[in-house]
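Shipment paperwork, digital attachment
Item: protein structure file
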Amino acid sequence: MSFGTWFIATRPWSLVMTFVSTCLAGTMAYAYGSFNIFLFALTMIGLLIAHSAANMANDWYDVKHGVDEEAPTKEYRPHPLLFGELEKSSYKLVVIGLYAVGLIISLYLTWLQGIPVLIFSILGVLFGVFYTADPVKLKHHSVGEISVFLAFGPLMVGGAFYAITGVFSWNPLLASIPIGLLVSLVLLANNIRDKEYDESFGISTIATGVEESKGILYYKSLLASAYIATIVLIVFRVLSPFAFMSFLSVFEALSIVRGFGSKIPLTADQQTAQLALHFGIFLTIGEMVSLLPFF
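Attachment content:
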């Protein structure tokens, strides 16, 4: 068992969204006038560890339930646990270990900044673990998109902002809405593509029970809402006008929608994840630019 195999098991390609969300929180903390590089770095590390643990836990329960054995995702995504590259006993210990380290970081930040850090952390872990874990299995009951939106949007950005500043503010929670919507869109794309497979396992998602064309309509509507939400947040001065830089990703969004046509492609979730990443990067850079002294 190489380090590389363990690294792949964390799904590192998905961790970039946590990086972007935390950077947005850090940028807003700097604008607020309460940025601390040590607290920012510690928060970033803690969230990346928690996200890695959640990814591995989700794969553990999907394999346990037999969900991943013939899933379309198997055709293109590395899955060390499913393919027998990692021992299940060791895998479980690593997941527990990652959560333990994340908890230590959370408790330390709670000691420094206050109980809200722990509350944000607990909520995030609950959404992460019970996304696929028994007995809740949020993914199986049409609330997967909502849980992902909350975890990667308000909880992550709002929680990171509090961990850095020690202050609760609605602005980071509101500013996270477009990013949260796009991350939940990744799941929706996955669920539209896998709807027949999910139905065969009795998994209920937003996409199951509707025609694929209607699922694609849901996708387009949610995609548009992310950009509309950004405009609204700029109008109400939650975000600066430089947040319009996020619209540089519109061309990519239109390309994805055109590529879907009447049937969603196998790599729909990958394409959407890249869009979410690029949107988040442009949005965060825009907010950073607004802090430059000559603006």
